[in-house]
Amino acid sequence: xxxxxxHMILFDAxxxxxxxxxxxxxxxxxxxxxxxxxxxxxTHAGTCPVYDRQRAVNExxxxxxxxxEVTYGVKSLFKIIANTWPVFAPLFAFKPFIWLMSKAYxxxxxxxxxxxxxxxxxxxYQPTFKLHYRLLYLLFTWFCTGFILTxxxxxxVGLVPLGNPYREYLICGGQVLFQGAAICSxxxxxxxxxxxxxxxxxFAGSLLxxxxxxxxxxxxxxxxxxxxxxxxxxxxxxxxxxxxxxxxGLGWVLTITWVTYRIVLLLLILNLN
Length: 273
Fold this sequence. Notes:
Order of helices and strands: EHEHEEHHHHHHHHH
Mean pLDDT: 91
Structural class: mainly alpha
Strand order of the largest sheet: 2-1-3-4
Shape: globular
Distance between the termini: 60 Å
Helix content: 55-70%
Largest sheet: 4 strands, mixed
C-alpha cells in the first residue's frame, strides 16, 4: 500500500470519530506514522503557521510539509485515498462528485459532536454551528427512525396494536417538539445540541431494531420475543440518554420528560386501539 509521505493530517482530539479514522489511516499505512497530529497540539505549528485554524476545526486539514500547501475537508481525504488507490483519482477530480461528497462531509462534520459527543470541549476553537445542517440531521434521523419503527411495529402485533402508516413518524416528531419545549423552559442555549444528541439516540436504537427485523426473515418468533428485544433496546437508549445529558450538564429533567413522553404514548396506544 502506497504511503503519502511528507504530509500531516490535523484531526480533532476531542472528537472520538476523528481519532479513530485518522488512526486507521496511519495503521493501514496510508500516511506516515508521524503524519498525524491533533490541531489542539502546538507541535505542528512550525510546519504551517498560516493555516486557517477555524477552518481546520470544521474541515480536516492536510498539510504538505514540503510546500506548505494545505487542503481541507473532503479534498484532504481524497488526496490520501487517491495516493493509495490511484484508480479513484479520476472520480475524485469529477466536480459533481466533489460537490456531492463535500456536502456529505459537511453534514457529518458539522454534526459530529452530536453523533458522538466529546467528553472534553476545552480547546479555544470549536466546530462552527450551522443551523441548516443540524435541521437536516434532525430530519434525516427522524425519517430513518420512523421508517424502521413502522416496519418493526408489524412484529409486535398481538401485544401492541398496529397503527396507521404515519404513527411512528408522528411519535418521533412529537418527541422532538416535546423535548424541545422542555429544554427551552430552562436552557435554550443547548436546544440544538440536545436535540441532535437525542435524535442520535433514537436513530441508534432504530438501527439495533434492524437486527430483530433481519432475524424475523429467517426465524419465526412470537410478538413477545420481539417486544422483549424492543424493551432491551429502549433500556440501552435510556442509559445513553442519561450519559449524554450528563456530559451536557443538563441534569435529570430531560430524562424524566423523555421517559414520561414514551410511557404516556404507550398507554394511549394500548388503550385507544
